[in-house]
Amino acid sequence: MSEAGHSRWVLPAVEALLRDQGLEAIALDLFAVTTGPGSFTGLRVGLGTVQGLALASRKPCLGVPTLDVLAHTATGAAATVVALMDAFRGEVFSGIYDGEARLVGERRVGKLDDVLQGLPRGAAFVGDAAVSQRAAIEAAVEAAVFPETDGFLAAPLALLALRGGRPTVAASELRPLYLRAASIRPSRT
Hints:
Blueprint: H1 3-20, E1 31-34, H2 40-57, E2 61-64, H3 66-72, E3 80-88, E4 91-98, E5 108-110, H4 112-116, E6 124-126, H5 128-132, H6 134-140, H7 154-163
Parallel strand pairs: 1-2, 3-6
Antiparallel strand pairs: 3-4, 4-5
Helix pairs in contact: 1-2
């Protein structure tokens, strides 16, 4: 499905889910969303949907970077967890975390080889780029670990929200995390 299609089905899907659970949006305590990195359109649809629901119900929001949620899926798999997402153009979005999924350093975008330099033996790798670049990772990081995750982030995001300890914000304060400038080119006309 195209990203543009998400905007047409996401609210009906939310409505069906709430109805199936016998809930109304107003009954929820908090709205959680991944803030990116990711595709421009996908982030805007997700953030806009959560903002609308939170504004209408006057509830707080929790925005969590996508790489942090990925790292959370591998908590305890190794002393170092590396979350990797395909950023296209031969690059990856990356974040390096400790074994408890706490960020060490910065989230960034760049070449996979740069991310892999200096990583310890036995580091765990998660995310779509960890899957697609497994051979390169295994060649660069001795005894690299690839914990099995399903790739769907809704459940680990919900667990992070339920656990608490992260600051919530008003819907109007949610912001996307892009890590790379937009690649919009001016029209040639």
